[in-house]
Amino acid sequence: MGQAATVGDAATPRERVSSAPSSDMAISVRGLTKRFGTFTAVDAIDFDVRRGEVFGFLGPNGAGKTTAIRMLTGTIAPTAGSALVLGDDVIAKPEKVKRRIGYMSQKFALFEDMTVDENLRFYAGVYDVSGAEFAARRRYILRMADLEGREDELTANLSVGWKQRLALGAATIHEPELLFLDEPTSGVDPVARRHFWDLLYDLADDGVTLFVTTHYMDEANHCHRLGFMYAGRLIAQGSPTEVRAAYAPDGATAGTLPSIEDVFVHLVTAHRDRQEDGA
Amino acid sequence: MNAAITRILAIARKEFIHLARDWRTLVAVLVLPAVQLLLFAYAISYDVRNVPTLIVDQDLTPASRAYIAKYEASDLYDVRGRVANIEAVRESFERGAARIAVVVPPGFARSLARGDKAQVAVLVDGSEPNSALVGSTFSRALNEGYGQRIQAQWADARGIDLERFGRIEPRIRTWYNPERRSADFLIPGLLVVIIMIVTTQQSAVTLVRERDQGTEEQMRVSPLRRTELMVGKLLPWTLLAFADMVAIVALSTAVFDVPLRGDVSFLAASILVFVFCSLGIGLIISAIAPSMESANIAALMISFLPGFMLSGFAFPLDSIPTVLQWASYLFPGRYMMAISRGVFLKGAGFAELSDQLGYLVVYAVAAITLSSVISARRQR
Ligand SMILES: Nc1ncnc2c1ncn2[C@@H]1O[C@H](COP(=O)(O)OP(=O)(O)OP(=O)(O)O)[C@@H](O)[C@H]1O
Ligand SMILES: [Mg+2]
């Protein structure tokens, strides 16, 4: 319990973010807030995501992760705060950003009554991907998703792992510089999950910035940096090792650091206790 | 701009694919109207063959005889004989020996010769429930033979002053369609009702479905604009509504001899606007409805009941309770009904019906605006 008081202090891996948003970053957020009526879903969060980084966004259900993503993709307007995405103000000019970002959700957003090919073609149309470019992208995605020869199959008939990879293909049909993934792996078996993360690493190797939410702690370990959300607030951030070290008991060595899962549970319970004390 | 068109076409193509894969909807949209028409036609033609008919020829000229010969030649009528006066008609009606009587008054030939509208009275046995159908058939036969020069007046046999034909105050119905319940009257109305139901229903579920499957969110993240999405979705439904219109018009004119007297391009333009109205209603529903089921039910309630009851289709609007009359202004059906019947039956066009089209335009703009306001508010 003693540690609870230090959470969020300068000593914790809550990095110092400079007060001005930076346009060199893939994402730069200051004071971003979203209220639904009197309920605050996202409460004045500040963070930066560097270009080319794989940023993991963690937090219990209802923490405000999806709401934050929806603001960053220009889907909903924030109540307060600023957000630069790929150097542009996504709040004032979402349309400047939209062509350059991609989004994939847990729901996969595929049309089940359409074939693999028709789904890809549709998203190519929506992103105005030209004929020649589309042909190349399509070939690449079919190979990536292991769907070669199944172009004319109805999406409804694909099993979840394939759907997931097709959804990733559809979300990246326009080769976005920044890809938001909101729980992209829930409901997928471990083998398919591993395969999926390999694909994400391929994207990262190509220089795509990834912003991923997940409830799987093994996936959190795959990220370059993590942000922990709780009740609308960003309560800790840093690389996985930094975060684990910050919450290690005194005298812990590299081998005895707590797992990300331990840190997650610790952070959430500590904050919950603190909130209850305050109330 | 080019990209916007690409996006709209992507949506439109996707909607066509949805339609092509969903055979139930396709059947509902394309076959149901034809089935309804055929059932309807059967109901009509079943009853009106060989209706026992009496002739009262008070003109006794070659013209009147030629006119009466039309009835004798038609298998719709079974001409039982001629009687001298209306008193005899009444007796026959009471005995059940005849159900209608055609009265050609003196001066018939003279009017025709002058190029005036000739008066003909048709007496219908008002105790006969199907008299309305008989009457409709009568009007059609009449019009076939003599075009616009004949004005049919007709009366309920019960209400007639039998002493003097000249003093009869028959319930005069306009010549083109004496009885509201006839095929001529119903089929142009059916066109309106079918288009209203089909388009409202489809657009009501389309956005809810996209919301459920997460594709709406996906499209929001994309460069696709709200209006592009709407236009892309409107396109296939507009085309289908036109297919429905062509099918109904073709069937009703070719098979049922419903006249199409007016300006077809005006009718088509009005239907286009009407489709937007119905789709607008559907989009409002889908912006409010929390689930597919509720969207479906709401669309059914809002398109079906008002489509039939508050458009003037099933009941004349001036015969329904005042509150419902007010309510009828809230639905686009009544305006389109006026246009459809006007064009089909009265030969009307823009000049006569521009006000109704104006209401539809206002309605369409209001409905589509309201739907995007509601769905935008939902997002905030
Ligand atoms: N449109 C909305 N109107 C009202 N409340 C909302 C709305 N969207 C989200 N919320 C609320 O905001 C809070 C944060 O929701 P959000 O979906 O962002 O959480 P999350 O971190 O993504 O959770 P999960 O892990 O379950 O996906 C929740 O309490 C949710 O009920
Ligand atoms: Mg979420």
Structure in words:
The complex is a heterodimer of chains A (279) and B (380). Chain A is α/β, with parallel strands linked by helices and 279 residues long. Helices cover 35% and strands 22% of the residues of chain A. Chain A has a single domain (25-276), classed as Rossmann fold (3-Layer(aba) Sandwich), CATH 3.40.50. In chain A, the strands form two sheets. In chain A, strands 6-7-8-3-9-10 form a six-stranded mixed sheet, sandwiched between helices. Chain B has 380 residues and is α/β, with parallel strands linked by helices. Chain B has two domains: 2-44 and 181-378, no CATH class; 51-165, abc type-2 transporter like domain (abc type-2 transporter like fold, 3-Layer(aba) Sandwich), CATH 3.40.1710. Chain B has 15 helices and five strands. Chain B has a five-stranded mixed sheet, with helices on both faces. The longest helix of chain B has 30 residues, at 183-212. Chain B is elongated, with a radius of gyration of 25 Å. Residues 143-181 of chain B have low confidence and may be disordered. The chains are: A alpha/beta (279), B alpha/beta (380). Bound molecules: adenosine-5'-triphosphate and magnesium ion.
CATH superfamily of chain A: P-loop containing nucleotide triphosphate hydrolases
Taken in chain order, the helices and strands of chain A follow as: EEEHEEHEHHHEHEHEEHH
Strand content of chain B: 5-15%
Uncertain stretches of 5 or more adjacent residues of chain A:
1-12
Helix content of chain B: 55-70%
Given this structure, which CATH class of chain A is correct? Alpha Beta
Helical run tally of chain A: 9
Strand residue percentage of chain A: 15-25%
Second-tier CATH architecture of chain A: 3-Layer(aba) Sandwich
Coarse structural class of chain A: alpha/beta
Radius of gyration of chain A, whole Å? 20 Å
